[in-house]
User: Fold these one by one.
Assistant:
Number 1:
Amino acid sequence: MRLRFSAGLLGLLFLLTACETIPDRPRIAYTGDPVIDGRAELQAAQPKDRVLWNYRIAASALRRNQPDEARVQLDTAIPLIGGILANSADARKARGLFSGEDSKTFIGEPYERVMAYYYRAILYWMEGQPDNARACYRTGQLIDSDAEANAYKSDYILLDYLDGFVSTKLAADGEDALARAQKNARGGALPPYDPNANLIVFAEYGQGPRKYGGGEFGEQLRFITTQSRSTHARLTLGSQVILLPTFDDLNYQATTRGGRVMDYILGRKAVFKSTTNTIGDVALTGAAIAASNARHYNGGTNRDAANAAMVLGAIGLISKITSAATTPKADTRAWDNLPQRLSFAAAQVAPGDYPAKVEFFDKDGTLLHARTKSFSVTVKPDGDTVIFVSELSR
Amino acid sequence: MNSTSRFLLATCSLGSALIFSGCVSDGVRNPSGVPVTEMKADERGFVAGTGVESQDLVAVTDKMARSIIGIPEIAQASATPRIVIEPVVNNTRFPINKDIFLTRIRTQLNEKAMGKVRFVDREIMKTLERERDLKRSGQVTASADPHVVEFRGADYFLTGKLDGMTTRTSAGTSDYVLYSFRLVDARTSEIVWESSAEIKKQGLEDAAYR
């Protein structure tokens, strides 16, 4: 009888090991260029992970002044993240007991989706379509309305501020949006709109949030946040100095969302995993006790105890296997090259070519020399000149 | 083998079968892909959102084109009116290709208005001016006197606006979009025609994304 059990257990383990099949992944020859390497990763990625690579490549491309590449990547991702993902087989699988949350097609947490729209808005503005940029700000703010607590719903300062600024530039009323931005700024004074500003500066600094799975089984989505040393920046354009204060903090946005519906599902999966594991422990312990009583001292067999041992053993084994197969793990795939802080400034600058320098400062106002970046800016004679500077560019 | 053992064997087999059935996967959904499905532009596809989609574009622009043909300023004009298209203003939360609405209205009118209306192409104005200058300088031939101004001015401007309203709650997302287009007399600034179409959509995403 023991032999049958051992053989059965061995067979199960063998078969379960065989189930761990991973699709062949092409070997990637890394070049050190985040855009080229990102494209190679995108090619090799499973369909469910492709948006993640679209995001990462877009951020890298924008920082390397490759707006066309960033546009292509974001225009691939946005139709998916902007739609209604319903009746999706992989989402259904992610909700199931035996698959982790990362089996669903990645679109990211709200702060990640917001950033996809935020970056696309910069590109729209560069293309001379500020109204489409404003559409992105509005959708971004709507995505952030998912936060659990009212105080954190749609609380990006910059999205409302820029919504109002674009409206003002388009001769519409931007006051409501400015008032919302001012409310979210919680006392911090926002610069008044200058509809004649022709130089639009977007800046970012610091490293954004990372994800990890907390809880007993990694079922709780948690964030690792580190405070960037850079807290504000300054752009020098010829003799003109433009201050770039922090408007929004992605660490704050990521950690103030609160509970998700999916957290509830993962929590139930974790309870199921724990319960089946406990049942398995109890049943296997019972089986061991029953097995120890299966033989009489006189050498005879206690048939009832032997049968009980078999039944409890089978229940224990199945419970243990079910527990092991239950996957409550939260999705920790993350857009890992996001910044921590977002900044913006607008100014009136005469058309022409300028040497430019952006300097970053810590909270005490100390210049962080190593982070200074120098470049040149050409201010167009017509329309807005949009520039993007990132501490993370390389 | 007694009945208890048979029962145990059956239970183990069933349990194993259940577990293995969950394992029959190579980690890729639709490994052979999904064949391309050709759809009509006015048909709702299986990839959908609450935003502006091709079926909305077709429905709205068809309605606008039909409406413009029927107005007296076009249908009963003594001379063929010339229209210049001005970009649509997007006030919704959906980034869109704004030119596509007016392009479709223009092509619909050019196809169906039987010459009752003409559009003036200002998109290639720089190219046209360069060509005229080449003719004026004698670098290329001309079939008419290039010094005579023949570029047409606009009798009317056709433009539009997209406005939106969004509601998002735990029950889902609802988006209302108002598409309005107008024809403005270039001489008097009067709006000689205006029409609108409205589309509302709502949906709720899978719990895995909430």
Number 2:
Amino acid sequence: MYIHYHNCIFPQQTALPGGLDTLLPADGNQLKAIEPSYDGVPPGLLRRMGKAVRMGTGTALPLLKDLRPDGIIIGTANGGMEDCIRFLNQIIDYDEGMLTPGNFVQSTPNAIAGQLGLMTRNQCYNITHVHRGLSFEQALLDAAMLSMEHPHRNYLVGAVDEIADYNYNIDLLGGWYKKHPQQNKDLYEANSPGSIAGEGAVMLVVNGQPEEAVARLRAIRSWHGTNPDDARTNIEAFLQQYTDGNIPLLITGENGDNRLLPYYETCEKLLPGSAVGRFKHMSGEYPTAAGIALWLTCRLFEGEALPHHFYKKGKENTAGPVLIYNTYKGEQHSLILLSKK
Amino acid sequence: MSRILITGIGAFSAIGDNVAANRQALISGQSGIRTLSNFPSRYAGSLPCGEITRSTDELKQSSGIDDPGVTRTSLIALQALREAITDAGLTPEQLRSSDTALINASTVGGMCLTDELYHDANNDGLAGSPFLSSYDNASVTLFLGQHLRIGGIQNTINTACSSSANAILYGARLLRHGFARRVIVGGADSLAKFTINGFKALHILSANPCTPFDAGRTGLNLGEAGAYLVLEREEDCHDKKTYAHCAGYGNSNDSYHPSSISDEGEGPFLCMQRALEAAQLTAGDIDAINAHGTATENNDETESRAMIRLFGTPPPFLSTKAYTGHTLGAAGALEAVFSILQLQYQESYPALRFNEPIVSTGLIPSASYRSLPVTHIMSNSFGFGGNCSSLIFSAV
Amino acid sequence: MEKEQLKQQLKEQIIKFLNLTNVKPEDIKDDEPLFGEGLGLDSIDSIELIVLLSREYGINIQDPKEGRKILVNIDTMVDYIEQHRTK
């Protein structure tokens, strides 16, 4: 599968080249997306959208101006969490009385893909993968299968999740965010459990044709379970099956949670010659954050230098294969291998 | 290309604890719609629902699960899934193998804990709640995957009411592409304050047992269920018992409105047409249809129009939601199981509570239990967000 | 309450309730249709407005079809509110 176009809304400046050089700070352990003015979205529709739907459609629509994809494939762990909780609050606050249905309709995770189908009058394949920390990876696999089934067709594939006060609170209670104030520029020095919260949307247009592609998805693998030996076995098997061991750049999902660091260090040790990059100090942690790593790789392949704060070890700007390893809460893991051609 | 065969089925719904009990209820026209009773709600004691009568504690006991963080949705799912994998004769080694995938669907997931989520989300004194990782749709899949030690790809799909039809479609494609050698596909949802109040707010819940395709229909009844199928490639089946061949599937978007289907049923028409194309069949080849048939004003009329447009005179059809209620994320898989039963036993079940046809379409669903020659059967599922899917199962 | 005052209040409530962020009360004409043309509201909005009438004015409309006759424009809504309000 080949990636041809990409767009992203996340907590850093994405519009201009070099915009990533200045790291924008987190506020209260949350990195919130910088939302554009959404000029292309009709106000009549915009008024009903929660942030996830807004970010998702706002990221996708610029890619769909002159292009009608033959499928809309979205990965999102929670979809419209904000609306979901607003409706939940209505149920309790009005004791199951007369409730407004708008939040309920927008709360279903498939609202992003559905709204995109509606706005672009697209009656093609439309699906939403919601497998928590592997939602985006499953969307990618779906798009990869479609690209093999119909190489000449274009597919929109995306990753979207939002911070809502409520899922932030639940994950905070669960110990997944740091309890002390944490600046994102020092995220990796914290040596404590938990990360900082983030959000964002990445949209890609893909097909099975190599001509003029930005990047090629060579392989993807996912697994479940907290056993570090499983991680090692899976990474070793993946490297053996799909690479010749030459991976100039490894991007990991390191997120400042010292409980998850051993997984990433295992991967780094298996690739001692690779430069290592990290991105969650820019995006924050969220279930579909791997999309950001993929988007950064596309920018790298297009010749943009990634900022110095991205690199943990070494510096690599050539066009060799890039491996992305991410784990969500140590329970869900994925490897994504990309190359320029 | 190798055919995708169904080697195991499992179902747990308001009309039965297992596939055999579900079939018995369908044959005898026994509806599972009764008054809501299993959880405290303003609508307990009044609202008709397709409720599984056993309490969550009873389900925990019968499944041998004592983890306090396990939700009703997961328990319902586990029972149906165990039936399917036992039926297919999958061994623990096979389940652990990296080429066994689990594709699950849920729209309620852990939201059956509406009140608990409210407390946890507002952090009002329930810290240490066992449910902190149980609220999303994926929690059901992750529970099943962990409990059964599934070694291969796991995924959760949510396309609202067509979710588990898409889980079947996705699983079949994983097999075709060689990403798995056997897939367990299906879905589960339990009744929840969240969905009851959501459908209530949209004014599409009926105060009476629902009447699909009837001119006087007044809306849907919600239900709860779990249903799973095991799919394997024909070359791996050897002399295994097989039920049917997953011949075709179609997915479309109606792109009309967030919560209702376009007047002419464009999305439903397209997904049925695409399923026929994928199965290399024509409309005339379809012998029976398990319709989406929610009994809302909008669905039954638009689905009827789409069927007429595609089939002219549609083959015998009915909506089994009059038996089970609308089981949301489980509906596609549950109705796939019912369709496979129709194929296996060459029979048709009675449509319940149908009095007179919708004036503009005149379609009349199957009236009574009878034997019916079925080689190809279609099952429809349409959901919010315009997500429409249609599946075709054929005799092996 | 004076009719004009009630109209102004209702318009403000509609804007807030339906999150019509780019609409001001003076943009909504009293006799302009709320649905289809005009404000361009849809079936979900009509249910939201029925809930508005219930929460703000204590008017309970059970049948959404009945609602369509009342929710034609600001004038019809205000007339109905004046006759049926319980708060």
